[in-house]
Amino acid sequence: MKDFIHSGVRPEHKDETNRRIMVVNLFAAVGVSLTFLLGLRAWWGNELGLALILFTASTLFFISHRIQIKFESSMGRFISVSILITCLMVLVLTLLVTGGADNTGPLWIYLVAPVTMFFAGFVRGVLALIAFVIVCTLLFFVFDESLLLTTYSYTFKTRLLYSFLTVSFLSAFYEYSRERSYRTTLHLSEQFERMAHHDHLTQLMNRRGAQAVLESEYARTQRTQRHFSIAIGDIDHFKRINDTLGHEKGDDVLVAISSLFKKRIRQQDVLARWGGEEFMFIFPETTAKDARRVLESLRETLSQSPLKINDAELWVTCSFGLCEVDESISISNAIRDADKALYEAKESGRNNVVLKTAE
After folding, report:
1. 201 φ, ψ to 5°?
2. 244-278: buried (b, 16+ CB within 10 Å) or exposed (e) per residue?
3. What is the side-by-side order of every strand in the sheet holding 228-235?
4. CB within 8 A of 218, min separation 6: which ones?
5. Which of 30, 237, 293, 309 has the most crowded Cβ, counting Cβ within 10 A?
6. Helix (H) or strand (E) holding 262
7. Among residues 9, 4, 55, 11, which one has the least CA distance to residue 25?
8. How many Å from the N-terminal Cα to the C-terminal Cα in the chain?
9. Pairing state of beta strands 353-355 and 307-309?
10. Checking DSSP bridges between strand 318-325 and strand 228-235, what pairing results, if any?
C-alpha cells in the first residue's frame, strides 16, 4: 500500500505536486476498494444495474491512477484528476436519483465539495461545483422529479442543497486560503534561495551560486568532453578608489562595472561576484581562445570610456586571469590556475588578459 500511494512521486517535483499525487493515489485506492465491494454486494443482492455502475466506477478509479503513473506530466495529472472528480460526481448523482439504501444516498453528496476543491484547485473547483449544483437543481426542481426513481420532500431537497452550498463555500474558502498561503510561502522560499545565491549589491550570483554553476558545467564536460573556460577579473587599484573616494563610491563603481560586464557578455555566459572587487566569468562550451576575445572586448570597453558615477566620470581598468577547463582538471585546480593567471596579469602591468594553461 505504501508503494502504491508513493507511486509517481519524484524528487524533481514540487512538494505540492507530490502531495497531490499521493492523495490521488490514496483516493483511487479507497475508491477502487469501496466501489468494488459495494458492487459485489449489489450483485449478490440482484441489483445488477447498480452493480454495473459500481464496477464501472471501480475501473475508472483504477484507470485514473494508471494515467497519473504512466503520463508523468501536468496534463496526465489533470486527466487523472478529471476522471476522479467526474466519477465521484456521477456516483453521487446516481445515488440522488435512486435514493440508495433507505434514501440515505444523498448523504454522500458532502464528499463532493472537499474532494473537488482539493483535486481541482480553487478556480476549477468552483466551476465544477457550480455545474454540479445546477445539475442537482435541475433533478430536484426543474424536471419535477420525473428523472428521480425515489421521492424526497421539498424541505429535504432545499435543506440538502443549502447545506451542500455551505460546505462548498467553506471548502472553497479553505482552498483559496491554502493556495494563497502556498504561493506566499513559495515566493518567500524563492526569495531566500535567491538571496543565498546572489550578491545583494550587484544582483549578480555570489560565490555560492557560481560554485553551483561550475559544478554543473564540469559535470556536463565529463559527459560530453566539451571544454569550458573560466576567468577571474579584478578591478585595478580598487583600494585606491575606496581610500580616495570612499566606500560608497566604491560600491557605485562595483555596480556600474557589473552592469557593463553583464550587458557585454554573451547570453550563455555567467557572471558572478567572486568576492570583494573580483568577478568570476564562466563560458560554457567555450575554448580559452574564444573566451579571451570576449574578455579583451570587455577590457577595451572599460578602459577606453569612463564610468559615470553620480554625474562624475571615473576611469577604471580591470585585469583578467583565464583558464580552460577539461575533464582532466578539477574545479579547484581550474580556479587556482585562473587565480595564478590573474596574479600574472597584475604583475605584468594590469589592464590585460592572461591565459594560464590548466595543470
Report:
1. -80, -55
2. eeeeebbebbbbbbbebbeeebeeebbbbbbeebb
3. 270-275, 278-283, 228-235, 318-325, 353-355
4. 228, 325, 331
5. 309
6. helix 247-264
7. 4
8. 55
9. unpaired
10. antiparallel
Q: What's the pLDDT tens digit per position in 69-99?
A: 888 777 888 888 888 899 889 989 988 998 8
Q: Which domains does the chain have, with CATH numbers?
A: 2-194 (no CATH), 207-355 (3.30.70.270)
**Set of cell numbers at residue 33:** 476498494
Cα(95)–Cα(112) distance, rounded to whole angstroms?
A: 13
Q: Are 354 and 344 in contact (CB under 8 A)?
A: yes
Q: How far is CA 308 from the centre of its chain?
A: 39
> pLDDT for 188-230, tens place per residue?
877 787 777 888 899 999 999 999 999 999 999 998 889 999 9
CA distance 39 to 56: 9
